[in-house]
Design a protein that fits this description.
It is a multi-pass membrane protein. Helix content is 56%, strand content 5%. It is mainly alpha-helical. It has one domain (23-182). It has a two-stranded antiparallel sheet. It is elongated, with a radius of gyration of 21 Å.
């Protein structure tokens, strides 16, 4: 065993100390960023409902004088599943590409926060795609009988950072080994 001392443990790379990292982003800024990004999701939803014909179906039902519940019952389930797929795939591409490129979605940029690698504070690169997948893809269940589970996971995932210490990570951060810091 040359070069190895029995009285010293081998060098192990540990998680960075909080003092070495940019300050963690406060929960209020993270929430504000998600609200802004939800506007992107809303635009995607509008595009998806128009593209699948769902929007037109609802408008025709409203013109007939159908109430909201009757309009919803008249929807074609295949169109709804397709619309959910378009929305969540679009959101995955939006978030994944922007996080991989510069660590910021439009919402994060607007409030001055970014996603960084936990190990060294660098841009997430391909890990931005992992983070986006864990955040967006459970929403695909929304158009299925398992939609409640997807929404429940999304709520638990989004609130996980409140009790997580010391890095205040959500589950999508843990999966990608990222943190959210001030830009």
């Amino acid at each position: 065993m040359t070069g190895m001392s029995l009285d010293q443990p081998p060098a192990v790379r540990t998680q960075p100390e909080l003092a070495e990292m940019a300050p963690l982003a406060p929960g209020g800024l993270r929430f504000a960023a998600r609200v802004i990004d939800a506007l992107v999701l809303l635009v995607l939803w509008l595009v998806a409902t128009v593209a699948t014909g769902m929007f037109g179906d609802v408008m025709r039902a409203q013109e007939r004088g159908d109430g909201l519940m009757e309009s919803a019952e008249a929807l074609d389930p295949a169109k709804a599943v397709l619309a959910f797929g378009i929305v969540y795939l679009g959101y995955f591409l939006y978030e994944g590409a922007l996080l991989a490129h510069n660590g910021q979605t439009l919402g994060k940029r607007a409030v001055g926060i970014r996603v960084a690698m936990l190990a060294d504070g660098d841009l997430p690169g391909h890990r931005g795609w992992t983070r986006a997948a864990v955040y967006a893809f459970p929403g695909l269940l929304g158009g299925s009988p398992f939609g409640l589970f997807g929404q429940l996971f999304w709520v638990v995932n989004s609130l996980w950072f409140v009790r997580d210490h010391p890095y205040h990570q959500c589950l999508h951060d843990k999966a990608a080994k990222t943190v959210v810091v001030r830009a």
